[in-house]
Amino acid sequence: MVMVKPFRGLRPLPQWVADVAAPPYDVLSSEEARQRAKDNPRSFLHVSKPEIDLDGSAGSHDPRTHQKGAENLQRMIRDGILKQDDAACYYITRLKMGDHEQTGLYALVSAAEYDA
Questions:
Q1: SS3 call for 38
Q2: Mean pLDDT, to the nearest integer, of 94-101?
Q3: Which of these, 40, 46, 53, 99, has the minimum number of CB atoms within 10 Å of its CB?
Q4: How far is 85 from 10, CA to CA, in rounded Å?
Q5: What is the pLDDT of residue 92?
Q6: Which of 26, 48, 50, 22 is nearest to 36 (CA)?
């Protein structure tokens, strides 16, 4: 049986929501993301496209890129930009582009169940 459970998500503090908000990682090129996040250390692009903070020789699949993304996420938590929710929740999201709209649910599920 598939188990779907709530979890304690990380969310920006209210005063940082506009700064943290970023398009999905696959919408911008690395250069576009670098320009958008240039003067905004709170942009989530530093986590979702961490190659923007490296010298340009590391691609999106380079281990250095993954390490930088982890460092940037930990910095945002440490600096109080992101905070983990006190209670486990289900998170509903709605994305709209033009006339297309989709609604999704974020929750914990078993990877084994997914593979099956």
A1: coil
A2: 93
A3: 99
A4: 6
A5: 96
A6: 22
68: its two tokens = 């930088």
Q: pTM (2 decimals)?
A: 0.84
Integer-rounded Cα radius of gyration of the chain: 16
Question: Using CA atoms, how far apart are residues 39 and 13, in angstroms rounded to an integer?
Answer: 19
Q: What are phi and psi of 114, to 5 degrees?
A: -60, -45
What torsion, rounded to 10 degrees, do the Cα atoms 103, 105, 111, 112 define?
Answer: -90
Tell me, what's the pLDDT at 43?
98
CA 49 to chain CA centroid, Å, is: 9
Q: Does residue 19 contact residue 103 with C-beta atoms inside 8 Å?
A: no
pLDDT digits (tens, 9 = 90+) for 33-84: 999 999 999 999 999 999 999 987 777 788 999 999 999 999 999 999 999 9
